[in-house]
């Protein structure tokens, strides 16, 4: 049986000793935005269900989605959708065997981040028209 008395040493390297790298930050963000997309889907389903139920239920849903909190949640959902989509396209290129050089990984990562903000802003402005 191996020696289990490790003293106060950590069992594995802790995140505090690692330097931030764009690859693992974006990987965590990809998972987080995937989970956040569920919130947007629930809101859209609620809104559609309320529309099918009747004017009173629709008024409640529409009032929430028109409020500042609803707008904030919708904007966050739109960012999650934009980021998740663009990072998914990045992963498709990786699946095809392109873009594995360190420089290309970093550039494509920053392109996804910047593109997500641009895409979110563009879609939000388009929705306001």
Q: What's the multimeric state?
A: single chain
Number of strand segments: 0
Shape: extended
Q: Low-confidence parts lasting 5 or more residues at pLDDT below 50?
A: none
Mean pLDDT across residues = 90
SS field, number of helical segments: 4
Strand residues, percent: under 5%
Distance between the termini: 69 Å
Features:
129 residues; mainly alpha; 4 helices
Task: Give your account of this protein's structure.
- With 129 residues, this protein is mainly alpha-helical.
- It is 77% helix and 0% strand.
- It is built from 4 helices and no strands.
- It has helices at 22-53, 55-66, 68-95, 102-128.
- Helix 1 (22-53) runs antiparallel to helix 2 (55-66), helix 2 (55-66) crosses helix 3 and helix 3 packs antiparallel against helix 4 (102-128).
- It is extended and about 65 Å long.
- The mean pLDDT is 90.
Structure in a nutshell:
The protein has helices at 22-53, 55-66, 68-95, 102-128. By secondary structure, it is mainly alpha-helical.
List strands and helices in order, with pairings:
Elements: H1 22-53, H2 55-66, H3 68-95, H4 102-128
Helix pairs in contact: 1-2, 1-3, 2-3, 3-4
